[in-house]
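Continuing the series of single-chain predictions for the mutant panel. This is the parent chain; the variants come on the following pages.
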Amino acid sequence: MSATELYGCRGCGSAVVEVLLERAGVEFEYHDVESWKAGPATDALKAVNPLAQVPTLKLGDGTVMTESAAMIVALDDMHRAARILPAPGDSRRAAALRWIVFIAGNMYPAISVGDFPERWVKSDAARAELKEGAVERLKAYWNMLEEAFKPAPFLLGSDMTALDVYAAMLSRWRPGRAWIDKDCPRVAAAIALAEQDPIVARVWARNFKR
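Parent structure:
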């Protein structure tokens, strides 16, 4: 069986997958790919994922995975001892899955629109307006998270799960951590605690500026 391979870039959505692989004790080869730049690294990524998106995960048996939310669930299935998500039968598991998919289905697209407005509209004015609108939607989504959780002390209770790490990663992007700390203090406290985990702290040091 070949080594697990993760295609990612520093500061990108691959950070959460790095954390979970390390938490599960999985040795993996990391391919640093700035997929918006043409070149051999992007060509290699396209060979396994035609969308050329990161993260892309190639498992040891050759299976290729895309979509970070799917990777979270699959890694939990494969490495139950790592306690990536609450166990099947635990009522918190349904909440974890709900909000992980909420992040993937709502927050990620708004970030993508803001990152690449030229994919959707042509004029500079329209791109600026679209980017501004995406930020406002992200603020609304963060407010929904704030209303949904009463951390104790993590989002789902006494144990850190992939949901805390996923939200912590998203907090490093728009609308920015300063806004989240001010406007969503309960969620901010939970993700700040998650960032003190040794594995999270080590991966964050590689990916995000303090």
